[in-house]
Amino acid sequence: MNPPLPKAPINWIGVFALVFLPIVAIIAIPLYAYHHDFSTSAWVSLIALLGLSSLGITAGYHRLWAHRAYEATLPLKIILMIMGTFAVQNSILFWASGHRTHHRHVDDVEHDPYSINNGFWYAHIGWMLRNYPAAESNYKNAPDLLNDKVVMFQDKYYIPLVIVVHAAILLPIGWAVGDMWGVLLLGGLLRLIFSHHVTFFINSLCHMWGKRPYTDENTARDNFWLAIATWGEGYHNYHHIFQYDYRNGVKWWQYDPTKWLIWSCSKLGLAKNLRRIPSFNIKKAELAMKFKYAEQDLAVYGHDVNADILAMKQRISQEYEAFSHTLNDWAKLKEQEIQAKKASVAEKIHQIDDKLKVDFQLVEQKLSYHRARLETLMRNVKKNIVTD
Known about the structure:
Blueprint: H1 12-35, H2 40-66, E1 71-72, H3 74-87, H4 92-104, H5 120-129, H6 143-146, H7 149-156, H8 158-177, H9 180-203, H10 224-229, H11 236-241, H12 257-267, E2 271-272, H13 279-300, H14 307-340, H15 343-387
Antiparallel strand pairs: 1-2
Organism: Acinetobacter silvestris
Keywords: Fatty acid biosynthesis, Fatty acid metabolism, Iron, Lipid biosynthesis, Lipid metabolism, Membrane, Oxidoreductase, Transmembrane, Transmembrane helix
Membrane topology: Multi-pass membrane protein
């Protein structure tokens, strides 16, 4: 149990946004519904505008600016900036810099701005209600953001932009559907509260509830249900080990609308250089965790790690070492190409690129084989324990 956090000055802006506004919503929305009822259009505005503001955070604040997982054209940057401003989660500069600090010091009770080890309440919302030292702005980790004109414009005029964006989005919709107060209360106020807590689930529940298929060196979890609630951000264990991938749901079947939005923008020429972690690295991390869980299971069943598992570990290590040599050769030749620009070097690069593709496929096949072998081995061990 960690000692209680020292009292910090109250953040009155945070209290207004995260405590006062929900109280207003609890009172005003039922009263309006009792006397006037909400139109269908107002309810539709809640859902549509929730997606708009949430995707501004996930595709913009998070994957574009915090992690540089892809590059965006100026029109897309402006659109994502407006969408993110509509979510009212502070400026891009403050949000992205703080999130980088979270990744660097994840789970550290003193340096992680929203460490889950300080408790669910602190990680979810408490860190924003007081001015804790861990959450203080420090932009030394964000020189790229300080040179981004869109980011700095929003940071300079953040409060006016919040007002203008809300007026520009909510008032025309309310007028068009003939339910101004309904849209303001549902598409504006209730949507804002939902948008806040959808994002905060990543900091709290995604560090408490779910599986860890890629790493157990931090508290981040993968959770399908939270992925649905958080627009694809729920595959948080993957994200914490491979934070620069533009995808969080890396499997084809995983629900990640943010990934689909970024990919669609790339096809329209609005985004480029989408960063993807090589499948070999992903499978290697998965297999390493399978070995670790297998060892834990064997310990529970009273068995030592047997020779088969040790032999498979050695084979994986040898294969990865050989593959690393090929990667090193490729990197050296790339460097030579940059420096010498010789035709002979370029030809060597072409040849080793082809070799790399073949080697990569072979190693992936071997990883799949070893994963299947490990799963069969563990099933047999558990079966023998039951029969004994």
